Amino acid sequence: MRPAHLLLLIVMNAFWAGTYSAFKGLAPHLDAGALATLRYSLAAGLLGVCWPWLPGSAPRGQDFLRTVVMGVIVFCFAPRLQVAGVQLGGATDAAVLMALEPLVTSIAAAWFLRERIGPRRWIGFGLGLLGVLVMAEVWRPDFRLPGLWANALFLSSFACEAAYSVMGKPLLGRWGMARVVTVALLSGSLANLVWEGPAAWHAAMALPVEGWWVMLYLSVICTVIGYVAWFYVIREAEVNVAVLTVFLQPVLGVLIAAVALGERPHWGHLWGSLVILLGVGIGLSRQIRLPGRAGAGQQCGATGVTGGEAGASPGAGHG
């Protein structure tokens, strides 16, 4: 992964971490279905207006059908499950549970994309999950799950979200990534409108001005910019490497929930965050390709030393 790609993912994960607090803040005005319908309809409309200026070609044939199915899964089913889980639980709980998504997505990428997960990344996943347990303070006598149904809804959304990376990455080498995102968004938005367009319209009419600002944040930054940025990174990087950065969301999500919603953090959040950051650091070690190192690998290859022996090729960073 390039350093610029890592920086981009860190920034986007900071924005994505705020979505849980946004969902919770919109709960009095919008249910899960209305929120998903409005969010992705706005994002699809924005990209639809920009369609003539989007680079690359639009997917055709079987790739078009694959993109449509991906859009319905990711932009119709996944957000309904995720928002419902957040609104039944708490923003902090959702941010902590989100730490399980990297593992689900990585396993899916290993199964469908034949990606290899190296030992360093397994250590990163393990420390990330350990950090989540520390954040939740599972050793406390009064510890309890925030709600089995809320957790089940939220966790089931991970399988749907994994489809974006697993189904989307093979399309990026053949079609323009912004056009793939647009077709997927339009498909998911159409499914949302068919599902409960009238109810979403009535909810939108009663949404206060502050709610519309939050909706624009979710639609423009977290969706249009965020989903294109994710494709931009995984077009070159392996999915199981990029998804390690999602572990940053529990750390950032707890801070945002404390500031925006007044949910009180505790010492477990601090120590758990440190464990998560250690896991991310180990998991991403040897995965960041610096320009100087890439050039050194080419010189080694010219002198008869292979990139794998020099440790400079992308494949040498698997673990």
TrEMBL record:
Domain spans labelled EamA: 6-135, 149-280
Recorded topology in the membrane: Multi-pass membrane protein
Keyword GTP-binding: no
Positions in coiled-coil regions: none
Gene Ontology cellular component terms for the protein in this record: membrane
Compartmental location: Membrane
Transmembrane feature ranges: 33-52, 64-82, 94-113, 122-139, 145-164, 176-195, 215-234, 241-261, 267-284
InterPro entries noted in UniProt: AA-Vitamin_Transporters, EamA_dom, EmrE-like
Gene3D superfamilies cross-referenced by the UniProt entry: 1.10.3730.20
SUPFAM superfamilies, sorted: Multidrug resistance efflux transporter EmrE (SSF103481)
Entry's family note: Belongs to the EamA transporter family.
Name assigned to this protein: DMT family transporter
